[in-house]
Structure formats: structure tokens, C-alpha cells
Amino acid sequence: MSCKHGHRHSIFCVLPPYVLDQILRHGTAQQRAAAVKTKSVDHTFRSLRLSALTIKSMRRLTTTAAAVASPVAPVKRRSIYTANHTETLPGTLVRGEGQPASGDPSVDEAYDGLGATFDFFAEVYQRNSIDDSGLALEATVHFGQDYNNAFWNSVQMVFGDGDGELFNRFTIALDVIGHELSHGVTEDEAQLQYFNQSGALNESMSDVFGALIKQYHLKQTADQADWLIGAGLFTGKVKGVALRSMKDPGSAFDDPVLGKDPQPKHMDQFVDTFEDNGGVHINSGIPNHAFYQVATRIGGYAWEHAGRIWYEALRDARVKPNANFMAFARVTLNVASTLYGATSSERQAVKDGWAAVGISL
Amino acid sequence: MKICYKRDGGLAFLPGLQRQTEFDAETLDDQRRNELSQLVSQCCFFEQPAQVGQAAKGAADMTAEVLTIEKEGARHQVRIVGTPPDEALLALLQVVRAVVALQRQHGG
What is d(CA A312, CA A292) in angstroms, rounded to the nearest whole number? Predict the structure, then answer.
């Protein structure tokens, strides 16, 4: 085998381990020293290559092994801050874990919502917080002045109070709290890039889990759920029911000031735009509706089967940061087969659900 | 002084909120007009970089705000992601947001 590295000794090429072992037994002192060094480096790369594990997967194996050896119940560690209408983060701590209600609705809703989200992931998917390693959860409320938004800044959640004209406070909707926290889960797992289709998938993941967190809290089946994201956010002055509808994308609002819900529900209506990082909040309607279709076709509690498929797909190493809708859909189909069988009704529901939005598997 | 404001992105990504809004400071009351003029000077708006701030990796639902100001023949645009560290620029942004919100309420 020719060595492309240009060193004199063939030992500096990647040799089969048994050749290195022979050198270790019979070589000169210099050759044995080189073989030891080569073997240790080579072993690392062989292990990674042969197992095709990502660093994330290795960490998960280590975490899982440690959990099996010494199981520790997930423990919530919540901290709620107020920005006092400034834009300084995190602000002033107003409620820590285990402390009684503050009397401030925003603070207490954030505290309860973080708890509900944590409990959902722990009880349903055995996930210990955002990073599956017990990460403390932080949220800041009363951010800015009349601030019509909530966001995840990569380390914490931030909630505005709304302007009182169009929007109520953003902690009012449990699914919004779950949505923001779920961005942390996505970042910990697939790291879906936040633009174009991968960004729309990222947004959809948060809507899916936000909706499931609300349904789990209310113990609603897929048929009973409203499949709305952000119901209650609008004031009574707005002609609209929510920010988005997974059941019927494009129908959530139609208001003289806010405009009409721009979400598509089918690939035929995909929106090509440079706005909103390539329409991440617009085209998320398509995978959102796919999930709704899958969940209602399967029936029962959506978090049990449809949610499990989506969650395991999000954690699957085949879902890359630049995954598009088709790539993700393929993984969900495969995950459904793995979990429930190649001829299962769940697998068929996934196939039909994606077909309903124009993605044929 | 003409000011143009546009918001992009955010959890509440709604067409009406993303619509570009323009106004002439001359149409505002004296207090507001003077406040805007002072803040534009204090933050050295016309010397600000074209982009201020960026979303951290993994961040989501953050808004970007694009501010374009024309004054005495000069025109400059700044795209602001997140909270600007310059307090005067933040104060300018807050005043512009308030004017835009008022305009929207009155059908502007």
C-alpha cells in the first residue's frame, strides 16, 4: 500500500492493527515507540469510523450508561427573572425553584410553564431537561416596553408583555413557553439551521412539542385538541384565534392591522422569500400540518405515538443540521417502522400524513 | 427627517407587523420630533455599522429591526438584531417603535 504522507517509515501510514502489534513485539525500540503512538491515535479514529457515531451519540451513550448505573430522577431548577421593562438580561431574580407564587402573573406563568415543559419531556420521553443532563431553566419576563415577542436566545427564554392593544403578555400561552424551550431541545439534538427548510423544521419542532405540552397538560386526545399555537395571545381587538393553526395553516387570523395568516399547508403553496430567514415561521405550516395529519390518523394521545416518532427522529443522527422536509420525513418513516413495525398503522399514518402535504415517501 | 422602520422575524411573525412603516418627523409633535433628532445625534446614527448584533448559534424567534433615516440629504440604514449595546441607539429604536405602533393603531 502506498503511503501518501512522504515519511520514511511505513509505520506512519494507517496500517492494520495486527501489523502494529507485530512491530510492538519484534521491532526496535524506536519502531515500538512509534507503533504505540500510532496505535493509540489510530484506535480513536477506527472506533469513530467503524461505529459511525457522532460525538452527540457518544455523549448520549455515556449519559445513558451512567443513568442505568446510577439512576437519578430529573430535578427541575427554574429561575424566573424580571427585566423591569428594560432589555437587560437576565434581569432581577424574582422566583427560584421551590419558591411560592409571586403574585405576578407573568412570573408565575413562566414558572409553571417551564415546569410543565420539563415534566413533559421527563415523563413522556425520559429526557432530563433541555440538554438531557439536567440543565437549569431560566426565563426573563417583562422584557422591553410593549414588547410583542418571545424568544430563545440560546441560553434562556425571554418574554415580552405585549402592547395591550394587539397582544397580551407572551407567558399567557403554555404552548408558547413550550415552543421556546423546545428550541433548546432542537439545538441540543439535530441543531437544525435556522433558515429555509431546516429553519422551518426547527420552528415546526417547537410548534409540535409546544402543542403536545399543552395537550399533555390538559390531557387532551388528538381529536380534542385545538392544534392552535399561541391561543390567547391576541387581545379581543384582533380578528384571529392564534398565531398559527396546525390543523388548518392559513386560518389562524385575518385582521385589518395584522394581515392574514400567511402559512401554507401544502408544498404546492411553499413560500420562497428572503424575509424571516427564508420564511421559517411561514413554511413551518407544512411540517406542522403533516404532524397534525399523522397524529389524528393514529388517534389517542398525540404524544404517545406521533410525538414519539417525531422526538426520536429529531434525535436521529441521520437528521443533519441542513435537513429539508423530505429528509426529515424519510427519517420519521424509518423511525415509525423501527418503533412500531414495517406494516404498522403508525408507519402508514406517517406515510399518509406527509403525502397530505405533498411529500411522497 | 424621514424615518423608515421594518421588523423581521420573531415568534409573532405576522404580515402586519413586518410591514415597512415610514414617517416624516416633521409630522410629529415638537417633543417627539426633538427627542428623535437628539437621539439620532447622540447615537451617531449615520456612523453606525450597517449591522448591529447577531443572533447566537441556536437562538430562535429573535427579531431583526431595520432602521433607515434620511436627514439633510444623507441616508443611512442599520439592521439591528437583538438589543443594541449602544444605549442611545436603543433609546432611538424604542421611540421609533412607539411612533410606528401609534401609526398602526390609527390605520397607518
Answer: 17
The answer on pLDDT for A184 being more than 90 is yes
CB contact under 8 A, B11 and A149: yes
The count of domains in chain A is 3
ipTM of the complex: 0.93
Q: CA nearest A202: which of A127, A280, A121?
A: A280
DSSP A165: S
Helix (H, G, I), strand (E, B) or coil at B8: strand
pTM for this entry: 0.85
Q: Quick one: A211 and A104 in the same domain?
A: no
Domain with residue A109: its CATH number is: 3.10.170.10
Question: Which of A147, A276, A280, A284 has the most B C-beta neighbours within 10 Å, making it the best mutation to test the interface with B?
Answer: A276
3 state SS of B78: strand
| Residue the block writes with cell 399547508 | A265
Please say whether the beta carbons of A258 and A251 come within 8 A. Answer: no
Radius of gyration of chain B (CA): 14
Tell me whether residues A149 and B61 touch, CB distance under 8 A. yes
